[in-house]
Amino acid sequence: MTKKKPIFTIDEDFSDLTRAQKSPVAIPKKREGDRITIEKALATIMRQMEISGNRPRTISDYVHHVTHFKESESLAYVDEINKDDLYNWIGKMDVSKQTQLTRLKCLKAFLSRCFDNGWIGTKFWRTVNVKVDKYVKEGATERELSILMSVLDLSNFVHLRDATAAQLIFKTGIRINTLASLEELHIDFESDTLNLSGNIIKNRQPIILPFDEMLHRMLSVLIKYNRAIKREYGQKNDFVFITRNGKRVSATQSNNNIQKRLNKYAKKYGLKNISPHALRRGFAKSLLEKGARITDISLALGHSNLAVTSQYLHLDKNEVADNLRKFL
Q1: How far apart, in whole angstroms, are the C-alpha atoms of residue 277 and residue 142?
Q2: Could you give the angle at the alpha carbon of 236 between the alpha carbons of 230 and 237, nearest 5°?
Q3: Reading across the β-sheet that carries 193-196, which strands appear in turn?
Q4: What are phi and psi for residue 126, nearest 5 degrees?
Q5: What angle do CA 82, 85, 87 make, to 5 degrees?
Q6: Rounded-to-5 percentages of helix, strand, coil across the chain
């Protein structure tokens, strides 16, 4: 009687295949000419970002941080970067955890673009991170804004300009650089709205934002005196927020006339949250308290996602519980 073969025994000769597999497989090495240097990759990515409409400041940050990383770790080619290089770079930084995280995010964004361009095979950097304790900043309140209005002399042009700027940010949520780029054509006094084109907004998305009767009056008076000042100094522009000499206020946060003066008022009068950023946060919190949807608030602020908007709202755990209880 013939003995049966075990059911899992394969009656087939695969020796020709296994012999081939046992032979060492030669992995072709990249020739020097096929590899891309970090410097060349950065130049290419810069051009891609310019074409995509990224802001000059963003591109400048890429260049600064990637170049610093390259020099710090003595690297030349994109494909030789590894996880240890990132950790070593972070470890050398004598800065706050938040600054470390900001720089790391910039480098990781560069590496992601390298991956998209096919210069890196894996996203090894995804698990590299810097833990930062989150501190939620408060927003301005109606009371703080009322105090500011009471201490400023609105018969003084600069005070009127600054008060109008503070009210406009608090009532519409626009950024300080959008405020600096605001022209008369962006204001519709018939419908009491700001009709903002994409070229003066960070996310490039046009939007219409309403304002109230008080701002209607303040903006009308400000524009009237703006025109007189521009005529006096021979300035030909349509900007709503100008200097004493009729020129446009600076659009950069570090050199913005209005931002500096708001900070000065905050210190002088003990107003904790009178700054462009705090006013934007106050706008978000005020709308939420009045029943606005978070999606609408997020769109008004020009945020890329709701997670960013939720940070603006400065909700502590007790407020969250009270708000949720309404729906039980």
Answers
A1: 15
A2: 95
A3: 187-188, 193-196, 207-210
A4: -60, -30
A5: 115
A6: 60, 5, 35
Express each pLDDT in 119-166 by its tens digit: 999 999 999 988 876 666 778 999 999 999 999 999 999 999 999 999
Residue 180 burial (CB count, 10 A): 23
| Rounded-to-integer distance, Cα 137 and Cα 135, Å | 6
Q: Taking the CB of residue 251, how many other CB atoms lie within 10 A of it? A: 15
CA angle 188, 191, 194 (to 5 degrees): 45
Question: pTM for the whole thing?
Answer: 0.59
Q: Is 210 helix (H, G, I), strand (E, B) or coil?
A: strand
H-run or E-run covering 187 = strand 187-188
Question: Quick check: 312 and 280 in contact, CB under 8 A?
Answer: yes
Q: Can you tell me the distance from the alpha carbon of 263 to that of 26, in angstroms, rounded to the nearest whole number?
A: 65
CB 249 within 8 A of CB 257: yes
Which of 14-28, 60-74, 184-198, 242-256 is the least confident region?
A: 14-28
Residue 180 tokens read as 């600096």
Q: How far apart are CA 259 and CA 269, in angstroms?
A: 15
The proportion of the chain whose per-residue pLDDT surpasses 90, expressed as a percent, equals 59
> Which residue in 219, 224, 225 sits closest to 194, CA to CA?
219
